[in-house]
Amino acid sequence: MKKMCLDIGTVRIGIAFSDELNILATGFDVYKRKNSDADFEYFSNLATEKKCDEIIIGYPINMDGTKGDKILEIENFANMLKEKTTIPIKFWDERLTTVEAEEYLIEAGYRREERRKIIDKVAAQIILQSFLDSNINK
After folding, report:
1. Neighbour count for residue 61 (Cβ, 10 Å)
2. Which side of the chain, N or C, has fewer Cβ within a 10 Å radius?
């Protein structure tokens, strides 16, 4: 079974999936938020369609390890998504993933306007790969 990862932003949500062996994360898409009902329906259906057994959500912990204001938004999103799906949801530390994604895209030669379109997807991929790597020997 695959894992789906969401990098949740105010306007866009990056989406990544693992392979069936849970070894490799791949960026999938950037979803532009519409409204709560449409958003949660979309993610619930997508996770089911892709045969996911877990949904991993990036957890924006502050650099000093404390919880910031954004965490409440993320937890509320997860709680609302839980009402639409029976697939378990886990949080994963997303510190510096957007910075890492930006650096990766710059090195790969993407221009600023191109980076803006896909950075959330790449950040979701980085979050998911970190999650997969931490579980590889368990």
Report:
1. 17
2. C
> Rounded CA gap, 3 and 52, in Å?
5
pLDDT 10s digits, 114-133: 888 888 999 999 999 999 99
Q: Are 68 and 95 in contact (CB under 8 A)?
A: no
For 65-82, what is each residue's pLDDT tens digit? 788 788 999 999 999 999
DSSP letter at 33 equals: P
- Indicate the CATH number for domain 2-134: 3.30.420.140
Domain boundaries, the chain: 2-134
- Amino acid 67 reads K
